[in-house]
Amino acid sequence: MVVLTVRSAHKRRYFVLFLTIAGFIIFRHMGTQRGRVQVVRRVGLSVNSSQFNLEGEPFRILGGSVHYFRVPRAYWKDRLMKMKACGINTLTTYVPWSLHEPERGSFQFRGQLDLEAFLQLAEELGLWVILRPGPYVCSELDLGGLPSWLLRDEQMKVRTTYPGFTEAVNVFFNKLIPKVVPFQFKKGGPIIAVQVENEYGSFAEDANYMPFIKEALESRGISELLLTCDNHDGLMNGGLSGVLRTINFQKLNHNDIKQLEAVQPKSPTLVMEYWTGWFDGWGDLHHVFPAEDMIAVVREILRRGMSINLYMFHGGTNFGFMNGAADNPSYKPLITSYDYDAPLSEAGDYTPKYHLLRDLFSHYQSVKLPDMPVLHAKDRYEAAIMFQHLSLWDVLPFTHTPFKTQTPVNMENLPVNNGNGQSYGYTLYETTITSGGSLRSGNNVRDRALVFVDRSFIGVFEFKTLELAVPDGKGERTLSLLVENCGRVNYGKALDSQRKGLVGDILLNNSPLRNFVIRSLDLTPSFIESLYRAPWKSLPHKPSFPGFFLGRMFVNGYPSDTFIKLPGWSKGVVFINGQNLGRYWHIGPQQTLYLPGPFLNSGINEVIVFEETEADYKVHFEDTPDLGMTVDVQ
Ligand code: GLA
């Protein structure tokens, strides 16, 4: 320690002043962000030879994707430490606009969506970051991560320079980008590269769009290496001048790699998305990609000197209603689990892929890999017995104010949520009919509707069921359609037509129905909370469906992870302590829902199930997941 003695008071004052000014200058130069000291570095990740360079040294990206919004925050550290222990040096994550700006101009960056905390954690653990801020991200998210309120505009053309889209992007980026700028490498942070949009080559609707996004990033202070990524379909049309092109695939496609190397001969090759597994749709089998096949390709990628990012390293869960849908060859909503058959399972367990990768990556490290963190316990809990019930019709007073309209209005254009429409969940459309006959959906039901006459169930409209018979009856009767948004398509050219609810006329005996009363049931946490004031009744012998079922589960001691199983139930949504865990559906493939320990209390936990058609009144909690019968990815 240096002890300074300044004798005269005069000199002491000057000395204090000198220290204050010097301190201020040093502090300004370093800058601080959320308590972190920023070091200034001059050169970031560079690509001027056939390899990457970082901090003046050759650098190979061994990356892995983990999405903060798909992993309970309490487990972020666990998952990232497991990533480190696997030999991965770079974390990659998307930023889901739809979750961060659920209503236009109203932003959420706290708790589960605290991106800055996630970046900070990566930094603390010594992981570099490649940030993928979209604004479109695909990622099996509803509308590819775009907010559904964009679709209120009938003329909307997402992923183009249509002013209604670019203006909204600008507002979002004005909020987002300043948050991430201080985390860039040259400012002392972990972000070594930023991706411009996502696989635009396979969309390619507007030549001015990618330059707009690039400029939108740069003008707001993004100064690290920029990159684009494309899959086989978009490789030819992808890319942007002055931006590194990268490639996405699962099986080695030598032609694609050659093609990429031909357009960028003096650049390193990065497989931005090496698909370690795949996602599942409802009614499908569970996709798996054999570990031996995966490791053979990863080994070859590394042998060729290429860099790689594992998409996903750990998939996590589509909690709530965040899942997207596929539309090729036809519409198919995606399941709640985003396990992805990734190296780390949905619940954070090591898989054979993890061990193979760790072994392989250990040969590419100069130091010994950290020990593998211990696993979290999984528990089987006593089943919760549902003892209270509310029918759908009982909860109507707790929904938004009903909206009356001559013709049907789609979800996004309903006058709810401060003028942002309804994004997710169910919408009830009701009108009066005076006859029976043939009811036709005209393919205007998005995506599925349970249909009732005077509250008696008469059938389901789906993409394949376009006609139902309405039984004859006397006088005026109420026809109700409970329409569910099962997930908006997240990939392909059909993004602008992803409006949900009723998107056109429903015909009864060829006449369009009129005079609707519409209620939004977006099943938000605040709606579920409001149900505590609802007139719950003891479970009747024959409860009516759809309905809400309430029970309690008891956790003795510290809560562990568990897996919810609902044998005898059909289709619905599970809420634990008010938190939406996501949808279940007996058609599978997934047979259990992941319930992370941090969502549980020690002691009593409230379980609410919204079930559409039939129930067994018992919710089971198993200690192992069941994602269904498997099929190899083709
Ligand atoms: C593409 C997208 C990702 C994801 C994968 C499939 O590569 O870029 O967001 O949708 O496909 O999982």
TrEMBL record:
Transmembrane segment boundaries: 14-31
GO MF terms held by the record: beta-galactosidase activity
Entry keyword annotation includes Repeat: no
InterPro entries recorded: B-gal_1-like (IPR026283), BetaGal1-like_ABD1 (IPR048912), BetaGal_gal-bd (IPR048913), Galactose-bd-like_sf (IPR008979), GH (IPR017853), Gly_Hdrlase_35_cat (IPR031330), Glyco_hydro_35_CS (IPR019801), Glycoside_Hdrlase_35 (IPR001944)
Beta-galactosidase galactose-binding domain segment(s): 547-605
SUPFAM superfamilies to which the protein is assigned, alphabetical: (Trans)glycosidases, Galactose-binding domain-like
Active site: E199 (proton donor), E273 (nucleophile)
EC number: 3.2.1.23
Keyword Cell membrane among UniProt keywords: no
One GO process term, biological-process aspect: carbohydrate metabolic process
PROSITE patterns noted in UniProt: GLYCOSYL_HYDROL_F35
Enzyme class: hydrolase
Record key words, sorted: Glycosidase, Hydrolase, Membrane, Transmembrane, Transmembrane helix
Beta-galactosidase 1-like first all-beta domain sequence ranges: 421-521
Domain of life of the organism encoding this protein: Eukaryota
PANTHER family per the UniProt record, alphabetical: BETA-GALACTOSIDASE RELATED
Family: Belongs to the glycosyl hydrolase 35 family.
Name the record gives this protein: Beta-galactosidase
Organism: Chanos chanos
